[in-house]
Amino acid sequence: MGLNMFxxxxxxxxxxxxxxxxxxxxxRLIPHAPNFTPLGAMALLAGAYIKNLRLSIAIPLLxxxxxxxxxxFHSTLLFVYGxxxxxxxxxxxxxxxxxxxxxxxxSLMSAIAFYTVTNFGSWLTHDxxxxxxxxxxxxxxxxxxxxxxxxxxxxxxxxxxxYASQQLPGKQIINS
Length: 176
Known about the structure:
The chain is mostly helical.
């Protein structure tokens, strides 16, 4: 199938997408490098394919809540969940027409959004940075190494997720 898959994206059922999203969420339980997770891919898949906005936000957030119940909760949880919800909402617009370019750009934009929101949350909720403009800049600078992992994992897991979604039974062509 190769790159021909990108000529005609097909709409898998939301139930299959929920299975993929839950699988990606629970893959967070596997030991990994910091920020090398499928969070961005989960959000992009949900936003691109699940047309009901509330459901498209709820499925990845519920999946994260279940995996966080095992991993543990943290002080920036609301910012992480907020970033995921923002990515889901954004992907409703970024991925109206699916193509290799739009998916790649959405992966990049989601990594930037996640970095921006979660590092702001880290600055706001931790005492390691002064609550000044300089402290905020320090938080963003300290987050740069994590951004690399976020970007690389977004690109990898998004490619895997969208490819897997095209292999599922019961699809309809949604654009060409």
